[in-house]
Structures are given as structure tokens and as C-alpha cells.
Design brief:
The structure is a homotetramer of 142-residue chains. With 142 residues, chain A is an alpha+beta fold. Chain A contains four helices and four strands, in the order H-E-E-H-H-E-E-H. Chains in contact: A-B, A-D, B-C, B-D, C-D.
Chain lengths: 142, 142, 142, 142
């Protein structure tokens, strides 16, 4: 039998709050999603003014980060033309995303969930996702 | 130009909190989704222990209630065998749901969003959705 | 080689105008779609206030009426429990609809397109679709 | 509560007429779609002779322009090989398009809808979309 660790709703909303604080400082409203260790949605917040277009993208970034067990931006290089995973974005009905803004949440080496952020530029999304992941690390993973 | 009213994130999370209180009283963890007037997700909470199977169902119930401008349970009768809308559940790639648990949030006759609840029995889901809609009505729509 | 007759854009928008007049008389804003003989969209109008939920349903009704070469409401009986086409609504990724409100547009026995109407009750949708089809018959098919 | 502005049907068909005039001058029949601020279809015209293949592409271009709040052609560069959003076209079940021909319609900084044009070359599509957006700007946004 396996025992799995997974993010709970209190932690998830706490991480969303941390992401929101960073997005507010930046003046960029964001869609923020948290998925669990199985890639399933736990919590979601669309800050007022965030793009409807990016709702599913935020969720997809979190899904891909939890699933690949790495930041979505770090999946990207292997999918470039000439690289072995070229074209991988077409997998999983488009849920294999390499857009920056998805980061796994890790405790003792185990991915217990992930955060996905989308509505700004990819750089802004990544910055907010990093703030969320850093908060998680400091609060729940030491 | 049209002017539309839509639920904001503060209201959405406030309604989710009301739904959570009712679900907690009942001892049934729930997935709770809020969509805006256009059917787009605004906020989502999966209470610890709620079924992953019901995540998308909760979101779909909210979508259908906002879209049909009526409680999902009230769409159902017209889709029964012999009734004119029989088979309508196959529409919209399965987003035309008549499962109880989706209720529009209305201000002065305008649907500004909807709540969807799923993880318990359909009766439990409906009870929690009603608690959420009642809370919204008393808090924001008078 | 086959020669096909198909509705043109002038006729399509003329039929939409007729449907709009009827819907306006009834006080029920509607989504109104016209497809051609091949089931492809030619023209679409969402009257202000019509449900976003019913956009694709209107298009689907027109598609099904053109495809089945009969009014969608007349496809329904054969799909009832116990009837031979039971469950047919699941075909074609949900585009096999039997909801009232789709009617073929016919010239000399040939289906050259269809109208689909959705946003009101199924009775209201059917009434507007009939007004559209009647207008077409009187204007273009004698 | 949020207040949103959205294009109405009169404006939408007016913009389609402007696009049609430009397409007619160019001798290239087009599919022309208008979506609202939430990405939902408001009006659509397929000029006689426009490709059936491009119906959904026109609608998708409008959806993406409204959603991303920028012209679809301006989303493209970040998705090129080596750029951070490479592969983004696989997102949203293919509704994340970067094909030129989609432009948001903006009033006082708010995206109230978008136009999408498809059936010609991408250059022709873009030219017609620009004519539509320019018309909107001069007529409704000053």
C-alpha cells in the first residue's frame, strides 16, 4: 500500500493568499490555482480583473507542474525544435503545458501539489508563482 | 453598449464560506464553485475529503445555473423521458447538467453568477447550494 | 457531378430578421443561427439579453435540422425510452439534438439550410423558428 | 459587484458591415465573427464564397483576442521556437490561436469584445480585422 502526502485546503488557500499579495504589489490581477499531488484542483481564485482566458491556463500550469514534478518553465527547453520532446505540448489534450507560471510544491522531496498562475506576461506569472512556492517552502516545508 | 453586473472575488469567497459552514454542519465535505455572469470560474474550494470526481461537476453545475438562469434541478423535469428537452444533457460537451446543486445568484433580476456544489448525494449538494444562495441573497441582494 | 443549392448570406440574414421580429413581439431575446445545406454556419445573431448558454445550442439545432432534414422536434419521438433511436443524443459529440427550435429550410424538396433558435422555453424557441421558416417559405420557396 | 461593459448586437453588426465593405473592396469573401467581453459569440457573417474551414477559425480568433486582450498577431512572437510561450497554441483545446485576424474592441481601456476574420491569407484577414477595429474606434470609442 502507498501512503501519499497531499496539500490540504488550508495550505492551498494560504498559498493563494501569498500569491495574491505578490500580484497586488505588482498591480497585475491573476488567476491562481492549486492542485493536489494527483493533479486535481483544490482551490482557485480569480482576482478581480484577471483574464477569463487564463482561468484554464492557470489550472493547466498547476496540473503540468504537479504531473511533471518540475516547474513548467523547466519543461520547455526539451520541447524546442530539434530537442527530443519537440511537439509534446500536443499531449494530454493540451494539458502538457510548458508556459512559465507552474511550480510544484514539495515536502521532503515529495510533490504534494502545485501552484499555477496566469493572466499577466509569462514573466509576471512566473514571479507570482515563485512567491507562492517560496511562501509554501518557508511555511510548510521546513 | 451593454452594462453587465458580475460577482466579484470578495463576494464569491464569502459565498463559498457560507456553503462551507453548511457542509461542515452536515459533516459532508464538498466541492464548491462560483462562476460569474458569463459562466467563467471565479473561485473554487475543495473541502478536505471531497471527491475529486466531483470537482468538474461542481464547476459544471455553476456554469449551467448561470447559463440557464435557473437552478439546475429546475432544468431537469423538461429533460425527462417524454418531455420536449429529453436528451439535452448531451449538449455543450456535457456542460448542460440538470444535476441538483447549481443555483444562480441574482441581483434585481440579473444573474450575476452562480454557485455549484458537488460531492455528496444530490440532496446534500442541493442543501448546501441553497444555503449559499440564501446567504448571497441576504447579504448582497437586498 | 452534383449540383447543390445552398442558402446565401442575404437570405440567411433576411430569415434572421424575420425571426428577430417574432422574438421581439414575444418579448423574448433569442440566439438565432442559420446553417447551410452542409450544416456549416452562415449567419448568427444574439439579440441583446439572450443567454450565452444557448449560443451553441441554437447553432446545434440548426445543424441537426439541416443534417436530419427534419425539424429537431420531430426527431425526438424516436429517441424516447423503448424507441429504436433511444440514446441518439449522445451521437456526434452532442450535435444530434432533438430539442425543439431547429427547422430545415427547403426549396423544391431540397434542404438548402436550416434555422436554429435558442434562449427561451422550448415552446418559445419553436415558435420563433417556425416564424423564420414560414418567412423563408413565403419569400424564397414559391 | 463588478460592472462590465460589453458590445451590443447593433454595434456588432455595424462592425461586421464595416469588415464586409473592406473585404468586398479587396474581392476576398470572409468569415467575420464578433464576440463579447467574455468571449461569447454575438454575431457572425459568412460572406458568400468564404471557406467553411475558416468559420470556427474566425470565431476562435475573436475569442483569443478578447481573452488575451491583444491582437492575435501580437500573441504570436512569444510562442515562436525559443520563446517562453512556445507551444501555447495547444492550450484551451485549440482556442489559443495566434493567427493574425483577431483584434480586441476597446473602450476607455476596457475590452468590450473582439472581431475575428478568416478565409483569406493571414495578411488579408488582418487587413479586414483592422478595418473593422478602426471603424469601431472611430464610431463608438471616442
Amino acid at each position: 500500500m502507498l501512503t501519499k502526502l497531499s496539500i490540504d485546503i488550508t495550505q492551498a488557500e494560504d498559498v493563494i493568499a501569498a500569491a495574491t499579495r505578490r500580484a497586488t504589489e505588482m498591480g497585475v490581477p491573476q488567476n491562481i490555482a492549486i492542485v493536489d499531488d494527483a493533479g486535481h484542483l483544490v482551490a482557485f481564485r480569480r482576482m478581480d480583473g484577471a483574464k477569463f482566458f487564463s482561468i484554464d491556463i492557470a489550472i493547466t500550469k498547476a496540473f503540468a507542474a504537479a504531473g511533471a514534478r518540475k516547474a513548467t518553465k523547466d519543461i520547455g527547453p526539451a520541447t524546442q525544435p530539434g530537442a527530443p520532446a519537440f511537439g509534446a505540448q500536443a499531449l494530454l489534450n493540451g494539458r502538457f503545458t510548458t508556459l512559465p507560471g507552474g511550480i510544484p510544491l514539495v515536502v521532503n522531496g515529495a510533490v504534494i501539489g502545485a501552484v499555477g498562475v496566469s493572466s499577466g506576461s509569462v514573466g509576471e506569472d512566473q514571479t507570482v508563482a515563485e512567491a507562492a512556492a517560496d511562501y509554501f517552502l518557508q511555511t510548510y516545508a521546513h
